[in-house]
Amino acid sequence: LRLRNDIVLISAAAFDKTAYAFDEQHHGFLTYYLLKELKSSKGDVELYDLYNSVDKDVQHESSLQGHLQEPTITVGGKLKESWTKIRLK
Predict the structure, then answer these.
(1) pLDDT tens column, 36-70
(2) How far is CA 1 from CA 55, 68, 80, 87, in A?
(3) 58 CB contacts (<8 Å, ≥6 apart)?
(4) Terminal-to-terminal C-alpha distance of the chain
(5) With b meaning 16 or more CB within 10 Å and e meaning fewer, what string describes 17-42?
(6) What angle do helix axes 29-41 and 47-64 make, rounded to 10 degrees?
(7) Which of 4, 13, 29, 70 lies at a 20 to 30 A Cα distance from 55?
(8) Where are the alpha helices (DSSP H) in the chain?
(9) pLDDT given for residue 24 in this prediction
(10) How does DSSP classify residue 7?
(11) Quick one: which of 81, 82, 75 has its CA closest to 4?
């Protein structure tokens, strides 16, 4: 996948893997934990910390449901070295 230089893309799973739903929450695992982390941090979070937290939670919860879902992150060229320091707020 090729992205513009200024894009950071967090995906629920690799293109050849499955993303699972969190039925009780009416969201997929990635959406649920991404929204939960953004709400708890009030959006004041570095992208690196956000991704790591969501990745850990999605892998843990999906494994409890009998699946393994691993979110991915793809970073555009100009941001490859600096994306970890991007603060959302």
Answers:
(1) 999 999 999 999 999 999 999 999 999 999 999 99
(2) 20, 22, 14, 24
(3) 12, 29, 30, 33, 69, 70, 71
(4) 27
(5) eebbebeeeeebbbbbbbeebbeeee
(6) 140
(7) 4
(8) 29-41, 47-64
(9) 83
(10) -
(11) 75
* Three-state secondary-structure class, residue 28: strand
What are 72's two structure tokens? Answer: 């991915």
Q: How far apart are CA 11 and CA 30, in angstroms?
A: 8
Residue type, 84: T
**Token pair for 36:** 């939960």
User: pLDDT (tens digit, 9 = 90+) per residue, 10-25?
Assistant: 999 999 999 999 888 8
Rg (CA), the chain: 13
Residues 6+ apart with CB under 8 A from 55: 70, 71
Give the closest residue to 11 by CA, choosing from 67, 54, 60.
54
Q: Which two tokens stand for residue 42?
A: 């009030």
